[in-house]
Specification:
The complex is a heterodimer. Chain A is α/β, with parallel strands linked by helices. Helices cover 33% and strands 25% of the residues of chain A. In chain A, strand 1 and strand 2 (20-33) form a beta hairpin. The two termini of chain A are 27 Å apart. By secondary structure, chain B is α/β, with parallel strands linked by helices. Chain B has a single domain, classed as P-loop containing nucleotide triphosphate hydrolases (Rossmann fold, 3-Layer(aba) Sandwich). In chain B, the strands form 2 sheets. An 8-stranded mixed sheet of chain B has the order 6-7-8-3-9-10-12-11, sandwiched between helices. Chain B has a 4-stranded antiparallel sheet with strand order 2-1-4-5. In chain B, helix 3 crosses helix 4. The longest helix of chain B has 18 residues, at 189-206. The chains are: A alpha/beta, B alpha/beta. Bound molecules: adenosine-5'-triphosphate (2 copies) and magnesium ion (MG) (2 copies).
């Protein structure tokens, strides 16, 4: 039996803006086991990043607020920890890499100083040792000429190299959980392939768990063991990667998988892409009852607009929030 | 075989980089460097390659939204590169462009009615208000919107709807050729599929020809008749879509294709990982521009410029090792 590392229960995060409440994350539950990669997929604005930031307790407050739920990490509810305790967890136990590395690297410090800072804070290393470790970390993420690069500033690096630096920083204190929020979305495919390979290599080496956020089903298929699918601030399906791709249950997941052009099928068949009609609902304003996907769902019945479907097990390890099951 | 609708010959665009007190040219970005290709009527030529390789510059230079440094662009019998301002405006009726960012490419202070109607006015394509209004509504319906959207502003629409407005605007002048510069890259997958299907329907209906620019190889494969692969300002391979994807010849094309994650966990492929990053287009490598990262390079690759050679009917490759 796999060991639980992180358990998120009924997480609900809202933003109280001048134009009304944004229900960015609405009753999200899932778990991450030790050493596994859990993929999180969903379209733009569905609440993936806010979920990640809530776990890190980095939601800007105000306007944001975690209004409900708990986040158990190794048996402790992170939402109840005093800020000082949380700082010890962040970076040391759980660390995060962001979609756009430039926004999270400090432009006025060298790459080495930034990696070393975390090491001094969490591991109590002195300046010299921290810098040596920083060079070691850069080598680990395959940055050539690490001794020279460690003294450079973020703007002197290419996008792919910056993302490697981010990974080096995130891994410098050997976290047990790495949250990677679209770590390759801003990169070209050949660089993306390098970074995903690197993440897999480091994961095998350190045995850490990864929460991998992406909107790319291909990235999920190639790197995760389990996956949750989010739609409009909620989890609509959870399954092993193998099962999700073979037998998606939620009409949204089914539609999503059918709407992706595939180069591997290209050679044998050329078909019209299937589409999901309509658009994603807004998360701003009054909470409305009913299944959020119902307005776009071909199987929707009047009753589906009245009550919320709950996320329930339909098979071992396969959950879906849909009235059809 | 049909006559080409568009012929691009030895097209070059170097952007000057200025510096110093006199703002002298200190270097040049070799954005597009001797690119030649044809597009036949009714086909879709896909143009793929990584960020900064010169795809958008190629598309813009063809329409002369950017002035070429050298080379020629022929649209049917007319040399686009030699046209004066007036003639250029005329030819823009036949060649249109749609952009990646539906947010930035629509004037936020104009209603949908005037965004789409503007081209009709400029090119005198409708007599009077009534006729113009009818045509705008017709265009909206063609792209899956309706008359109720006439008085709305761009910010009231979703990304996919804005892209539809951009397409309706391009269609207003009944063009023959549309340069589509990453038209679906900013959209969510489920919306992407809607727009791709729309572009395919419009092509059928109006006999349109597309230059379809994208970095997403799956999307390009899906929509294109033929595909051209670009690396650091040069074309390295051109082939019919199916041929390119099943039988890539250039090592860069191979690496690019193998890097695309496949949404099927049961599929396991051999992945070719390239070393390092794309070099700077300011000082591109000598010889074959890909040689610094190429897994099959031989010493002379650093010296010999590579030209496209036909290895099979319609399949062109610029690699001295493979062709
Ligand atoms: N600081 C904020 N103030 C107000 N609303 C916010 C804030 N941050 C996020 N939101 C809203 O919360 C919702 C969820 O956003 P989130 O960033 O989690 O989406 P996402 O799934 O990560 O999307 P993407 O794929 O585009 O990164 C969105 O509707 C967004 O507009
Ligand atoms: N106006 C300009 N001035 C100077 N350099 C430019 C200009 N426009 C583009 N470039 C440079 O020319 C090169 C090619 O750019 P281009 O936008 O054509 O690439 P692209 O293939 O469309 O990339 P992307 O996939 O990122 O859109 C890049 O190095 C870019 O920085
Ligand atoms: Mg996000
Ligand atoms: Mg571009």
């Amino acid at each position: 039996m796999a060991e639980r590392l992180l358990e998120v229960k009924d997480l609900t995060t809202h933003f109280f803006t001048d134009d009304g409440v944004v229900r960015a994350v609405d009753g999200v539950s899932f778990h991450v086991d030790k050493g596994e990669t859990l993929g999180v997929v969903g379209e733009s604005g569905c609440g993936k990043s806010v979920t990640a930031l809530s776990i890190m307790r980095l939601i800007p407050q105000p306007p944001g607020q975690i209004v409900r739920g708990r986040i158990d990490y190794n048996g402790r509810n992170l939402l109840e920890l005093p800020p000082k305790e949380m700082r010890k967890i962040r970076g040391k136990e759980i660390s995060m890499i962001f979609q756009e590395p430039m926004t999270s690297l400090n432009p006025v410090f060298t790459v080495g100083e930034q990696i070393a800072e975390a090491l001094r804070l969490h591991e109590g290393l002195n300046r010299r040792d921290a810098l040596d470790r920083a060079i070691e970390m850069l080598r680990l993420v395959h940055i050539p000429n690490a001794e020279r690069r460690v003294r450079e500033y973020p703007h002197q690096l290419s996008g792919g190299m910056r993302q490697r630096v981010m990974i080096a920083m995130a891994l410098s204190c050997s976290p047990k959980l790495l949250i990677a929020d679209e770590p390759t979305t801003a990169l070209d495919v050949t660089i993306q392939a390098q970074i995903l390979e690197l993440l897999n290599e480091l994961k095998a080496r350190f045995g850490m768990a990864v929460l991998l956020i992406t909107h790319d089903m291909g990235v999920i298929a190639e790197t995760a063991q389990r996956v949750i699918v989010m739609y409009a601030a909620q989890v609509v399906e959870e399954a092993s990667v193998r099962e999700l791709f073979k037998e998606p249950l939620h009409p949204y997941t089914q539609g999503l998988l059918r709407s992706i052009p595939r180069i591997d099928l290209a050679a044998t068949q050329r078909r019209r892409l299937q589409t999901i009609p309509g658009t994603v609902p807004t998360l701003r304003g009054e909470a409305r009852p009913g299944c959020r996907f119902a307005p776009r769902c071909e199987f929707a019945r009047p009753a589906h607009f009245d009550t919320d479907p709950t996320l329930k097990d339909v098979r071992p390890g396969h959950k879906v929030a849909c009235f059809l099951y | 075989m049909a006559e080409a609708l568009l012929r691009v010959r030895h097209l070059k665009k170097y952007f000057p980089i200025r510096g110093g007190v006199f703002s002298r040219e200190v270097a040049r970005v070799h954005a597009v460097d001797d690119v030649s290709f044809d597009i036949r009527p009714g086909e879709t030529l896909g143009l793929v390659g990584e960020s900064g390789c010169g795809k958008s510059t190629t598309g813009r230079t063809i329409l002369r939204l950017v002035e070429p440094t050298a080379g020629e662009v022929w649209f049917q019998e007319r040399n686009v590169t030699a046209l004066d301002k007036r003639a250029l405006r005329q030819i823009r009726k036949e060649m249109q462009i749609i952009f990646q960012d539906p947010y930035a490419s629509l004037n936020p202070r104009m209603t949908v009615r005037s965004i789409i109607g503007e081209a009709l006015v400029i090119h005198k394509l409708a007599r009077g208000r009534r006729e113009r209004e009818e045509r705008v509504v017709q265009l909206l319906e063609t792209v899956g919107l309706s008359a109720e959207h006439l008085r709305r502003y761009p910010h009231e629409f979703s990304g996919g709807q804005r892209q539809r407005i951009g397409i309706a605007r391009a269609l207003a002048v009944s063009p023959k050729l549309i340069v589509a510069d990453e038209p679906v890259s900013a959209l969510d997958v489920s919306i992407q599929a809607q727009i791709i299907n729309l572009l395919e329907e419009l092509q059928q209906k109006f006999g349109l020809t597309y230059l379809f620019i994208a970095h997403d190889l799956s999307v390009v494969e899906h929509i294109s008749t033929r595909v051209a692969v670009m690396y650091l300002g040069k074309l390295v391979e051109v082939a019919p879509a199916k041929e390119l994807y099943t039988n890539p010849k250039h090592p860069y094309t191979e690496a690019l294709l193998s890097a695309v994650p496949i949404p099927d966990p049961a599929m396991r492929r051999r992945r070719i990982l390239l070393e390092g990053d794309v070099p700077s287009p300011i000082r591109p490598p000598s010889g074959c521009r890909f040689h610094t990262r190429c897994p099959i390079r031989v010493p002379s690759c650093a010296e010999n410029d590579q030209l496209l050679k036909e290895v099979a009917p319609g399949h062109w490759v610029a690699c001295q090792v493979r062709a």
